[in-house]
Design goal:
With about 130 residues, the protein is of the alpha+beta class. The chain has four helices and five strands, in the order H-E-E-H-E-E-H-E-H. The chain has helices at about 1-10, 60-70, 95-110, 120-125; strands spanning about 40-45, 50-55, 80-85, 85, 115. Strands 4-3-5 form a three-stranded antiparallel sheet. The longest helix has 15 residues, at about 95-110. The protein is elongated, with a radius of gyration of 22 Å. The chain starts with a helix and ends with a helix.
Length: about 130
């Protein structure tokens, strides 16, 4: 695998010609309701091939529902305050939170997340 990574790292030559071949190409099938859900940018190359030029984060179902509920165009800056009533400390990493969510899902068959708007929380703390 390590040798394969080195080989794949230099597929573009200094002349700008592609070292890709149809035989080594991989196909990925993605289903989306709209173009924005794909999360990438395609462009036409010099030889009229269509190539992937950029990747970007795509808002998920929860994010889109929150935007609609709040009537805001921008994504709210929310933190997970608690998972099934258990406080989430500020030092919790993504893996700690995901493990807690998975444990709750498997043991209780449900997960209750309480979110906190970080900007509003800071504003309240400044009122003291």
């Amino acid at each position: 695998l390590q040798g394969q990574k080195k080989e794949n790292a230099n597929r573009w030559s200094t002349t700008g010609k592609s070292n890709f071949s149809a035989e080594s190409a991989e196909t990925i099938c993605v289903t989306a309701d709209s173009f924005e859900q794909i999360g990438c940018v395609f462009e036409s190359a010099w030889n009229l091939d269509i190539i992937l030029t950029d990747l970007f984060a795509v808002p998920g179902t929860l994010q889109l529902a929150m935007k609609r509920h709040l009537g805001k165009n921008e994504t709210p800056k929310l933190a997970i305050e608690s998972i099934n009533g258990q406080f989430v400390p500020s030092y919790a990493t993504e893996s700690i939170v995901m493990n807690a969510i998975n444990r709750s899902w498997h043991s209780d068959g449900r997960v209750e997340l309480v979110f906190c708007d970080d900007e509003q929380k800071e504003w309240v703390h400044r009122l003291r």
